[in-house]
């Protein structure tokens, strides 16, 4: 029996390309690959710390999941009512409010129509305003931003990354750098440099499902929010039974404008979000599911009678692809015990959020306290000159379910960018940096590195019925 093209076990035919010289148009202290929540924070942090930072993004705008996948609500900044996210990520929320793209943090019930909802604090925002805010943020910091450009290969020498090969519209070029930050979400550069991964290639189609987000206009947001939870559950079950909803959720985040809703009602399983062919199938299937769901919402769900589809996310949201094997692998036990590490660079608040890749299930667990992310999770094992940030960091699948929230991802990016600039200043590898010096810098920059509970602060948590979607 033979494997299909792209399946493990089959060696596809190869074509040898002639060697060629690439132009070097710029040098950098720090190159950041990927302009999502982790990447833009890394680039801004590096630039503010005095490094010449180049930020590379394949899309025509920054923001990644927040803008391109249209996941228009930040999570991970709070554990219960206690803020655990600060630094550049929190600054972004303040700028969004000033720009009229958000009103602030508020209570939200995650998976209210599901079997195990979780009360959280979220920050709804307008993705279009966020694009502009990030342009301004990077411009003020002096980041050299390259949009419409993809980081395709690492430059390697003696087991260390020394730069990145970029592919732009007008051709390829090389950018040498002292430190490379891989914030591609897929660990593209460090994997190609030989870094081992925490998850197996044989299980790449058993990962968490993908979601296509949609923006609906003319929604009576308050009417929908006022529906009792049990009615929402009954409606969600009816949608799944009719085949018009792909999962038993009626998740919607209202826009700051008041009459738009960002809905998460799709689930695309069994495909690899780091494989272009699988991702093509996922995009098409996601749009098909949105069309079916909109019909159901308009017909069955109070508040959506006049709603219409005003925008589809530019690309499907991917929860999980590759996670590196780093100097430390964060575990579910670490998260669910609220473990605090001596080399902590960020705090997370959860919840632990894992979607079943083969069914309709969803695991939601609240950690008993904030948990910390150690610096070692950002260091690819046996590879120098580089750091990772965001959802490709070193963690198990379940631990990443709590760590991948955008507030926490931004915190890892801020830490990676500051560490990269510090490595440039010291002429050292990121692995050799003193953890205490890095933590001190992050704290000076407004990041929350140590658990606020250790400062004697208290927290409270109300019931599910105290807040609504």
Automatic annotation (TrEMBL):
Record carries keyword Ligase: no
InterPro entries cross-referenced by the UniProt entry: FAD/NAD-bd_sf, HdrA-like
Gene3D superfamilies: FAD/NAD(P)-binding domain
Entry keyword set: 4Fe-4S, Iron, Iron-sulfur, Metal-binding, Oxidoreductase
One Gene Ontology MF term: metal ion binding
Protein name: FAD-dependent oxidoreductase
Source organism phylogeny: Bacteria, Bacillati, Actinomycetota, Actinomycetes, Streptosporangiales
């Amino acid at each position: 029996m033979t494997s299909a093209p792209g399946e493990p076990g089959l060696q596809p035919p190869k074509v040898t390309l002639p060697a060629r010289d690439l132009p070097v148009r710029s040098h950098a202290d720090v190159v950041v690959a990927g302009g999502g929540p982790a990447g833009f924070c890394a680039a801004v942090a590096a630039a503010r710390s005095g490094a010449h930072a180049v930020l590379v993004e394949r899309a025509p705008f920054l923001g990644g999941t927040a803008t391109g996948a249209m996941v228009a609500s930040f999570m991970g900044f709070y554990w219960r009512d206690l803020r655990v996210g600060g630094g550049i990520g929190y600054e972004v929320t303040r700028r969004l409010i000033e720009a009229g793209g958000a009103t602030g943090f508020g209570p939200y019930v995650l998976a209210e129509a599901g079997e195990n909802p979780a009360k959280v604090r979220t920050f709804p925002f307008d993705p279009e305003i966020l694009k502009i805010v990030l342009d301004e943020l990077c411009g003020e910091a002096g980041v050299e931003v390259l949009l419409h450009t993809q980081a395709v290969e690492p430059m390697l020498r003696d087991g260390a990354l020394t730069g990145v090969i970029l592919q732009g519209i007008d051709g390829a070029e090389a950018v040498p750098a002292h430190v490379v930050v891989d914030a591609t979400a897929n660990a593209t550069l460090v994997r190609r440099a030989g870094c081992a991964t925490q998850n197996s290639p044989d299980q790449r189609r058993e990962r968490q499902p993908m979601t296509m987000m949609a923006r609906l206009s003319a929604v009576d947001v308050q009417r929908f929010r006022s529906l009792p939870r049990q009615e929402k559950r009954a409606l969600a079950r009816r949608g799944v039974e009719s085949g018009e909803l792909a999962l038993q959720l009626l998740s919607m985040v209202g826009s700051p404008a008041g009459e738009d809703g960002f809905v998460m009602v799709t689930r695309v399983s069994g495909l690899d979000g780091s494989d272009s062919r699988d991702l093509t199938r996922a995009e098409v299937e996601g749009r098909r599911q949105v069309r079916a769901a909109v019909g159901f919402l308009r017909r069955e769900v109070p508040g959506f009678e006049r709603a219409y589809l005003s925008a589809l996310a530019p690309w499907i949201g991917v929860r999980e692809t590759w996670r590196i094997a780093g100097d430390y692998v964060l575990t579910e036990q670490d998260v669910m015990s609220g473990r605090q590490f001596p080399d902590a660079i960020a705090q997370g608040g959860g919840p632990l959020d894992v979607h079943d890749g083969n069914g309709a299930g969803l695991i939601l667990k609240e950690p008993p306290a904030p948990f910390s992310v150690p610096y070692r999770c950002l260091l690819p094992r046996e590879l120098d000159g580089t750091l990772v940030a965001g959802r490709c960091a070193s963690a198990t699948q379940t631990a990443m379910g709590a760590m991948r929230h955008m507030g926490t991802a931004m915190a890892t990016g801020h830490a990676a960018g500051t560490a990269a600039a510090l490595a440039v200043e010291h002429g050292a590898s990121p692995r050799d940096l003193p953890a205490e010096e890095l933590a001190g810098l992050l704290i000076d920059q407004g990041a929350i590195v140590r658990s606020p509970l250790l400062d004697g602060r208290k927290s409270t948590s109300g019931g599910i019925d105290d807040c609504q979607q």
